[in-house]
Amino acid sequence: MNSIILQIASKYLRIIFLLFAFIALFRGHNQPGGGFIGGLLAALYIVYDSLAFTSDQIKQQLKVRPESYMGVGLLCVLLSFLPSIVTGAPLMQGAWLSVDSSVFGEIKLGTPLLFDLGVFIAVMGVTLMFLFTLSTKK
Amino acid sequence: MLIILILYLVLAFALFLIPKNISKQTPLLIALVQLGIFAFFINYLPNIAAGHVINQSIAWIPHLELNLEFTLDGLSLIFALLISFIGFLVFVYAKTYMKSYTGTARFYFYLTLFSGSMMGLVLSSNFIQLFIFWELTSILSFLLISFFNEKEQARKAAFQSLFVTGFGGLCLFVGIILIGSIVDSYSLSVWLENADVIRSDNKYFPALVLVLLGVFTKSAQFPFHFWLLGAMQAPTPVSAYLHSATMVKAGIFLLMRLYPVLGGTIEWTYIVSVIGALTMLVGAYVAVTQIDIKLILAYTTISALGILTLLLGIDTKLSVKAALVFLFVHAFYKAALFMLAGFLTKISGTRVLYKFGGLIKHTPWGFIIAMLALLSMAGIPPMLGFIGKELIYEAKFESPWVSSLLIVLGVTANVFMVAVSFLLLFKIFWGESRMDVTSALSKYKYLLISPGILALLSLGLGLFPDLLATLIEPAISIIRGYDIQLKLKLWHGFNLILGISIITVLGGTLLFIFIYNNKGAISAWQRINNRLFSIDFTRVFSTGLEKFITFSSKNTHLIQHGYNRYYIITIIIFTSLLLSFQLYMNRGWEINSDFTLRPFYISGLVVIITLSALMSVFSKNSIFTVTAMAVTGYGISLIYLYYSAVDLAITQIIIETLMVVMFVLVLRRLPNFIKLSGRSTKIRDAVIALSFGVIMTFLALKAINVDIHPSISDYFVENSAVKAYGKNVVNVILVDFRALDTMGEVTVLVIAALGVFTLLNLKKSGK
Q1: Residue B434 is part of which domain span?
Q2: Helix (H/G/I), strand (E/B), else coil: A105
Q3: Is the pLDDT of residue B310 over 80?
Q4: How far apart are CA A47 and CA A55, in angstroms?
Q5: Considering chain B, what percentage of its residues have pLDDT values greater than 90?
Q6: Which of B742, B721, B741, B658 is nearest to A35 (CA)?
Q7: Among B21, B78, B356, B753, which has the minimal tally of Cβ within 10 Å of its Cβ?
Q8: Å from B654 to nearest chain A CA?
């Protein structure tokens, strides 16, 4: 479909979609959401984009290939285990860092967040991989 | 001792770091290291000779009771010395031999690793560990035989040797485990202590047979000998090192190692000595009729290995002593002969015996070395081979049973050996000169260094055998379990043994003269042989293998037919049966759940879900089907939402959306939607699908009020905020409590994506 309206609209919707995805990721620990949902939402924006653009155009805009997303995602997951290995705690035990900020109040950053981020990126990569492979013209 | 193995390993990998401009000197570097290791072991000689045994044990996997255990005793010392010394000579030899080939870095890498593995094998005193080294030598032998991998013959031969020795290796492994299960340990020391227990256990016989299968395949005993002939495709340094001096002796080593554990029984005596005698005879007999000099040497090697096995089987006072002496005898003359054969092939470009002639004029040194080595092989004084042969005869005489038969067999085999020795010597160096080799001679003259040293050793140790005696004495006491005074000498005075020796040499010489003077004798003889022994072992092996492959591929096709619909049907039917069986056995069929469809909008949702499911089944349009399925999914996610499973609902909605997109993308690629299935197929599919659905529904209803374990969800709810700082229990479970599961799931997803990617792209490129 070559619709100028969709193409312009998707430029703005993209931001909203991604914002939504990240919110889902970050609030996931305390409220409904999380890395899996966030990753799917992020992929959904590309599905939406694919209505407006061809998959080659999307690939160009993305700049990073889906394989790399998958790899980086898995790497994040593995990296999140690193603190527990270094400190000698049981593997995958979460490590937490408390940051006091005047705007948001106390923010707790922990390896589970990194883990969730890894899931986010990997899931997004997987979905993109499916999408691109299936939508490439024969 | 571990340090030696690490040295080999590091050296092997370091070879690739050697800069190009000095890489020509690589083999000399390795040779020097081998010499150093030889010196290292020589250092231990006085200690070992005094009766000490040096043990080293390093914890490896302690909770499996697997430790790295090494033992340096009389037996392993002998082999360690042989491996490092022959290794030294082989690398010196290989420097000249291999210089015209490409890929020598790989060659030296394999050969160095082989030295290390072989060393590890003889030093191991834990049998699991020994098995690992045993297999390593098999694999490296495979890689070295196929070194000229552009030749199909070499590849085939390599595969064959790997199959045969690999089969034996597996047998050995099972045998080791059987013995290990008797005494509950894999340590040599424990096996030695409980030797009587092992021998009287009813697992002894199967274990013995399996171990012996390993030994016989490795040491090329009849009827497994054929792989050694194929192995002659390897470069000559490999033939000299692996396939005559060291690797094929691994089986002999294991026989010696296990002699105090498994030996001395009737079964051992019969199996080992009969197979040994057969191999000895077949090898020597066939050697005479061969025309390829390398194959002649290979057959005599088989024969020699047969002699060693026979000696370890007949179990007399002298037999182990004779075997150890002969081990040295053979290692020295056979490695020298292989190296000479390589030299001759290099200068003349042929391996066919009858194309040689008159080389004595061109290479007198080559002649002298060949003469010394061949005299040792024929067992003629003053060579070491003579002492070896005398001892063998003496040992056979002592045999309490069928000693006369053994002597006859031994004399026959040795007559052939003598004839072969003379044949090689005279056909190659005597007669008229038929080839011009002067140009190649100077290029390859360094190839004579290593065989020269070995030939001199055969002579020197023949004249002064006491040196050898000090080496062998501790090994005998290790194998036989008591100390023995060893006297080796050339001259025993006029006695029966000497008489038999003279008969042997005379018989061999007569046979040689007959063959030498009758040009057609060999080919006529070969024709007779072909008629008598029409079994070509190599062909039997390869046809057997082919039959097996066709057999298994037929069987595989029965299950792996390649129709997706039948795979799915199989999976679903099997799952349904299994589930209903399990439900019936464990739970019964009655349902007593407080199942309800209230409030009314839930009932409405259920109606919508059911209707859309039905529509998806009966629709005639594939897009419609997909959409109807999505409606089902959305409906279900609303039910989730009603029961406050928010995360689940969100995920379900997004997944359904993505699924529709994916389905549409897939459908685009498919041909138009045509209903091809007939009425009966439809009914069949409906029955299968309905029964599966019913069982799953039933399972879900049962699952509600099944409470096998005290619920773990309470723990999650209680600790989620306290210990994991998260209020969304579902998410905390995913990323923290059960992070391992999530990681696994994500990895599976990634692998699936890669699978889809490759599958679809494969199709695209038309494969």
Answers
A1: 295-517
A2: strand
A3: yes
A4: 10
A5: 19
A6: B742
A7: B21
A8: 7
Element (H, E) at B59: strand B54-61
Q: Is B111 exposed, middle or buried (0-12, 13-18, 19+ CB in 10 A)?
A: buried
pLDDT surpasses 60 at B767: no
Domain termination site, one of B471, B488, B517: B517
Of the candidates A74, A126, A135, the beta carbon closest to that of B665 is on A135
Find where tokens 């529509």 sit.
B615
- Interface predicted TM-score (ipTM): 0.85
- Verify whether the Cβ–Cβ distance B753 to A70 is below 8 Å: yes
Which pLDDT does position B594 carry in this prediction? 66
Q: B215 falls in which pLDDT band (50, 70, 90)?
A: very high
Any idea where the domains of chain A sit in the sequence?
4-135
pLDDT at res. A105: 63
Instruction: State how far the alpha carbon of B626 is from the alpha carbons of B36, B199, B377, B631, B675, in Å.
Output: 75, 71, 83, 9, 16
User: Which residue of chain B has the CA closest to A27?
Assistant: B728
Would the pLDDT of B248 be above 80?
yes
Quick: pLDDT tens for B527-576: 777 666 656 677 788 888 889 889 988 888 888 888 888 889 999 999 99
Select from B517, B552, B569 the last residue of a domain: B517
Q: Nearest CA to B245 among B325, B131, B332, B342? A: B332
Nearest residue to B673 via CA among B630, B627, B621:
B621
3-state secondary structure of B645: coil
Over range B269-291, report the average pLDDT. Answer: 87
Mean pLDDT of B270-298: 87
Best CA proximity match to B232, nearest among B296, B322, B136, B179: B296
Neighbour count for residue B597 (Cβ, 10 Å): 11
* Inter-chain CB proximity A112 and B658 less than 8 Å: no
Is B357 inside a domain boundary?
A: yes
Is B443 among the domain residues? yes
The Cα–Cα gap between B633 and B648 comes to 12
Q: pLDDT category, B375, cuts 50, 70, 90?
A: confident
d(CA B177, CA B359): 54
Instruction: Residue B658: list chain A partners with CB under 8 A.
Output: 40, 43-44, 47, 127
- Take residue B243 and report the two structure tokens written for it: 């396939």
Q: Report how many domains make up chain B.
A: 2
Nearest to B310 by CA among B376, B181, B380, B403: B403
Q: Are B488 and B466 in contact (CB under 8 A)?
A: yes
Q: What is the pLDDT of residues B640-694, one digit of tens each?
A: 888 888 888 888 998 898 888 888 878 877 777 666 678 888 888 889 999 999 9
**How many CB atoms are located within 10 Å of the residue A31 CB?**
16
Report the share of chain A in percent with pLDDT over 70: 87
Which of A41, A129, A135 minimises the CB distance to B757? Answer: A129
Q: Residue B153: CB partners within 8 Å, gap ≥ 6? A: B233
Chain B: nearest CA to A28, how far in angstroms? 6
Which chain B residues touch A26 with a CB distance below 8 Å?
none
Residues of A numbered 3-42 whose beta carbons fall under 8 angstroms of chain B's beta carbons: which are they?
A: 24, 28-37, 40-41
Contact assignment for B756 to A108 by CB distance below 8 Å: no
Q: Considering only CB atoms, which chain B residues are within 8 Å of A50?
A: 661
Helix axes B152-183, B250-262, angle to 10 degrees: 20
The phi and psi torsions of B57 (rounded to 5 degrees) equal -135, 130
Amino acid at site B244: S
Candidates A17, A20, A29, partner chain B, best to mutate (most B CBs within 10 A): A29
Is residue B117 a part of any domain in this protein?
Answer: no
Residue-level pLDDT at B709: 67
If you write DSSP's letter for every residue of B329-379 in order, what string do you get? HHHHHHHHHHHHHHHHHHHHS--BGGG---TTTT-HHHHHHHHHHHHHHHT
Residue B688 located in a structural domain:
no
